[in-house]
Amino acid sequence: MSFNRLNGPVLSRTAVLLLSALGTQAMAAADAPAVSAYAEQTAVGKLTASVKRYTLQADAKLYVPVRSTSPTVLRAFPKGLFPDVGSGLAFKGKNKGVLEFYGVADRGPNTDGPGKVSNPAGSGSKSFPVPDFHPTYGLIRVTDKAATLVTSVPLIDATGRKMTGLPPAPAKVGAAEIPLTADFRFDPALSAFDPDGLDLEAIVFDKARGVLWMSDEYGPFVLKVDPASGRILHKYAPGPGATDLPAVLGERRSNRGMEGLALDGATGKLYGAMQSPIDPLDATGKSLQATPLGGKATDIRNQARVIRWMEFDPSTERSRLFVYPVDGVGYDKGRTGTTKLGDVTVLGKGRFLVIEQGARASDGKIQNWLMLVEMPATATDVATLGHDLEISSITGAPSQGVDFAAVVPLKKTRLLDLNAAGWNTEKAEGVALVDAHTIALINDNDFSIHTVLSDASGNPVNGNVEDCALDATNGTLSACGAAVTAGVAPLSGPEHQVQFWLIRFDQDLTALPSF
User: Fold this and answer.
1) Residue 14's closest CA among 69, 92, 85, 93?
2) CB-based contact 306:419 (threshold 8 Å)
3) Which parts of the chain sit beneath pLDDT 70?
4) 340 with 346: CB under 8 angstroms?
5) pLDDT in tens, 124-139
6) Are 126 and 106 in contact (CB under 8 A)?
7) In 86-212, which residue ranges form alpha helices assigned H by DSSP?
């Protein structure tokens, strides 16, 4: 997933890559972890914890190469872009006292593009400065002194072909997320649609089966992967079949697929969380709407009170779906669609930790909360219910016989305000349980690049590039100001770093009281 960070000058691709390289090389310098204490009063009592904060390091051989024929650019890039494996996190175990984790990268370096595109038509877009990036995962080793990425493994198919992070073409006209070049144009020779493209967002280590599980945002897909080779052993997608994922998941909002995935070691079942409410479309690719009582028609994706939560049993290949409840209170514009779930980890006995985040109403800044989630024994399986469930949640009345009021959802309560504990980046995206008292967190830094807008004189312009319209043939922007252009720029400050946290609670997380 991506947030807009719209400050700074518009730069040429050469300058962008140079500055990104310099920033990420500085980040990789040795940086001793900082330790602090934190306490919070919660619905399950007062929690106290020790927070150890690392900046992830990596060997130069793992940096993402910059593809260029320019000697000047190549000389400026002795390392390339720092490998961002913060989209998901899984605890592998201890190796001679050293903690080992798997981290996963998403579709690669990309930045937000205009929300409406023509030539070709699309309802969103992304710029891919490194379109030949291959989605990867790697091993992270954590000692008292450092957190270091030590391997990088690209995903491959059964033939050994490396996967790409470019989006598949959509099934509905106009619903495409258009892959653009660094110059915000559509050039199929450089960045085309890929029917097998992957945007990985979560990773799970299944020791009993000897495999990795990963989920993504495009399908959303769930992948079974050989950890040694990166070979995809099986790919599950939404569909009508008994062993497919529930078909309704295919109505996921663009760039808001299955962000979290976790394994219950006691049952062998996987649990996956969609990032936000789904976005059902009509035949032209336009978002369907519903009307709340006494209100105006709104896109379902903006006000549905449902985030789909999946249970998948690999032994039977059967799925169930549950409701993670959301409301717009406290979020920007009062929209439930502002809510985004990050990664999930299992505490056991029907209890989970999940990252809930989004722009808050007071100032638009991103808040990150660690939520404690319980699955009641009576929780309703909604796998067979289509988007009428979301409609009913908005209107407050049954829709085509589906009544949201009759559904028993998951229970949730805030366990930790990560920002109050010192988290200073927007995107907490990976969480893993180390032991009954300890969790690990990691952020996705979008490879330390983002989109900026500027006027005809090159001065920065405040605004959101997703509000713009683009003619992808010539790169002309409209609908967001006169003579506005889009460009790519490096991030600065904490946002350009991949942070890794270890939080040790005084309390046993697996034995917290009910709420």
Assistant:
1) 69
2) no
3) 1-31, 66-78
4) no
5) 999 998 888 999 999 9
6) no
7) none
Sign of the Cα pseudo-torsion (19, 24, 30, 33, in order): positive
Domain extent for 85: 13-511
CA distances 104 to 5, 322, 343, 355, Å, are 23, 26, 12, 17
Q: Note whether residue 2 is domain-resident.
A: no
Kindly state whether residue 3 falls inside one of the protein's structural domains: no
CB 387 within 8 A of CB 419: no
In this structure, the chain runs to a length of: 515
User: What is the DSSP-derived secondary structure letter of residue 362?
Assistant: T
pTM of the model: 0.91
Q: Which amino acid makes up residue 90? A: A
**Number of domains forming the structure of the chain:** 1
Q: Which two tokens stand for residue 449?
A: 């690049």
Kindly state the tokens that stand for 286: 């336009």
**Which amino acid would we find at residue 244?**
D
Q: Return the closest-CA partner of residue 104 out of 498, 514, 512.
A: 498
Q: How far is CA 319 from CA 80, 199, 266, 309, 500, in A?
A: 41, 22, 17, 10, 32
CA dihedral 462, 463, 465, 466 (to 10 degrees): 170
Q: Is residue 6 part of a domain?
A: no
Strands (E), 409-468: 411-417, 428-435, 438-443, 449-454
Residue 8 in any domain: the answer is no
